Each structure stands twice: as structure tokens, then as C-alpha cells.
Amino acid sequence: MNFQSASRAQLEAAEAELAQQYQAHQSSGLSLDLTRGKPSTEQVELSSSLDGILAGNYISEEGVDLRNYGGLDGIPGMKRLFAETFSIDVSRILIGGNSSLTLMYQSALFALQFGLGGEGSAWNQESGEVKFICPVPGYDRHFSVCEHLGIKMIPVAMDENGPLMDEVESLIKADPMIKGIWCVPRFSNPTGCVYSDEVVDRIAALAGIAGNNFRVFWDNAYAVHILDDEAKELADVFVSAKKHGTEDSVLIFGSTSKVTFAGAGVAFMAASSSNLAAFKRHLGFSSIGPDKLNQQRHINLLKDATGFKAHMTQHAAILKPRFDIVEKYLIEGLAGSGIASWLKPQGGYFVSFDSEPGLAKQIVAMAADAGVKLTPAGATFPYGHDPKDANIRLAPSYPSLEEIEQAMAIFVVCVKLATVRKMLNA
Ligand SMILES: Cc1ncc(COP(=O)(O)O)c(C=O)c1O
């Protein structure tokens, strides 16, 4: 039924029926969780052979004893593996510890405090408040990095092609203290969109119109997390940056957190040689080197880009049925209702759902009362504030298929009931 064109009597009848369904769900005592964007146990088990895979061989291909100190920017084999898989020149890669978020946090901290562009390039040496563009909805932990470092966040909306670039460019032209932009360019968290070629090119060009030392934080966390073989490809941001003479503005990040073990994977960053040199100089004060044995374990398991891809196909086989259930419930329950919108992702970990304005918090609370935990409304916006109170992030990777079925049935009832009640009270 299209709620927008329904008569009052139809809405009242729908309300009565939905209220009954909701009460039935409430009394069934379920405890379900759609909040966690983490791999399921089945997925992490794909990499269980990492344990013991070295079988006592601790010497790298280059003859380095991996048990000892050193190798601040990673071992060559791990750099090659990421370089091949992500189509990045190997000379640009630095291997970190287990977390790309740590590399992003360190990059922002170093750029703010010390500068990545040589003497006098620290953002906090300029007078004025440092700011970042934050495409929304986005990844809450990017926003926490900014909040923690005292960087002011400026939200900019996205569509299916990525951030709205006219707005991004006019903000950046008007304010040289905008020093960065967060981007999750392929299977964005949470909308699932893949930035269009034009958006990638315009982002790569931003440093040409920005103030000094502008950096693009290109968090390619989901680049290889494909659900659909026909998934849209992402243009190469370094190629565009080279064309625009802005190579120093691009910092790329990624990891195997959702490839192997989320808590014990390997992370990388890729950047120009001058960015890498500056980053390493600062990094060297806090570490003598990362866990090289874990890097070698990953080389042994994944081998090369082909092995990496084959491994991701196994993940897709586990994840796709979960996303299919979410899509099925949204289509069957809400398509044509005029009260909800979402994008069907071709990869990544999330479905981003928009309710009628002013209802997201209420829907999340109603779902909680009926035993379904959802990501708090607003979490996908800077400072936890969604001005429309409409966006809800659904994360179906972790629960079982049966749990997702139950959770989605309840979610759809909550969306409809909250909306019908709002319409009746309007
Ligand atoms: C966009 C994005 N970037 C980074 C991360 C975390 O990556 P890592 O585990 O490598 O720190 C996540 C995890 O959910 C994410 O969604």
C-alpha cells in the first residue's frame, strides 16, 4: 500500500493491524542484533589456517628473520600483495599493524601536529580552526577521530555517485582551513555507493583549489568486498591526482580486517614518497616495527591478487544470502509505500535506510523494545546528529540467516507503524 496516497480510514486500519503485529513481536522475547559491521564466525573461519601456517619458517624470502625487530614500513612480500590486489605502485605502500583506522588516526594526528609536507606544514600552526569535509551518512569512527583531535566537521550530502561535489568545491574554495575530506569510495559505509569516475577525478583535483596541505583520506576499506560480480569498478585516484599535479594530497588506506581476522589482520597505507617519508619519521618514535610474522602468515595464506580474490569470493558466498534477506524484506514490506528509501549495495557491509524525516530515533527505539538492536540513529553523522533524523544503518553480516529474517520482519513493522502513527497525528 502507498501510505502517502492512502485515506485516513485506510491508515487507521493499517495502524490497528500493525499495532497487533508489533505487540506479537514484543511478546515473543527475541534478542537480535543488527548493529555490528563485523564478519561472522563462518567468515573468520575461512582464515583459520593462519594459525600454524608458518610451520617454524621464520625467515622471509629476502632472508630476514621475521622474529626480530625492524622493518618499520613492512616486508616486501606484504607490500607486493597489497600493491597487486589494490593496483597501486608497490613503492607507495607502507604496511602498518592490524588496523587501518590506526593509520588514519596517526596520519591526521601527524598532519595536525607536525605536518606531512615539510617544515611549517602542520595544520595547527595556521591561525584558524582546522576543518574536514565529512560526506554523510558516513563512518562514525572517522567522525570520532576528528572530534578527538578537535577538527571541526562539515557534513556534505552524498548521492549514488558519492559526495555532492559542487558543494564540496564551493566550501573548500571559500575556506583554506578545510584541510581534509573523508572518503569511503567503493561500497561506502553505510550507503554502499561507488564513487563515479567524475567524482573521483574532482576529489583528486581538490588540492588545487584548497588551502595548503590539504589531504584526501581515501579509506578504501571495502574495495575488494564484492557481493555482485557486476559491481561497479572504482577509478584510480592516483592516476587523476597525477594528471592534476596533486599526488601529495592523496592518502589511501585499507586492511585485511574483513578478509582474514578482524582483530588480527594487516593494514596498509599508500601515498606519495614525500608523505611516506614524513609519516615514517613520526611513526619511528612510537614503534621499532610492526608484526612481520603476521604479514608472512598473510602472504602464505593469500599468496597473490588471484588468491586474494578467490578468498573474497568465499566471503561473498556467506554474505550475499544475508544481504538478499534484507533486500527481500525491504522490497516486500516497503517498496512502493512512499515512506522509505535505500540503495541496494553491490558490496561492503551495510544497507543504508532512510525513513520519513523525524522517525529514525523512534524506529530504532521501537525495534529495541521488540528485541532488535539497531545502530543508534544519528551515528552515521558528525556529532551523532542527523538533522533529518531519517538514516538507519543496517548491518547484516554477523547474525545468522534466521536471525536476519526475524529482525527484518520486526524492522519493517516498526517502520510502517511509526510512519502511520505520524501521519495520523499530523
Ligand atoms: C569505512 C571503514 N574504515 C575502516 C574500518 C576499520 O578498519 P580496520 O579494522 O582496518 O581498522 C571500518 C570498519 O568497520 C570501516 O567501516
Automatic annotation (TrEMBL):
Source species, domain of life: Bacteria
Protein name as it appears in the record: Alanine-glyoxylate aminotransferase-like protein
Keywords for the protein's UniProt record, in alphabetical order: Aminotransferase, Transferase
GO MF term list: L-aspartate:2-oxoglutarate aminotransferase activity
Keyword Transferase belongs to the record: yes
Pfam families: Asp_aminotransf
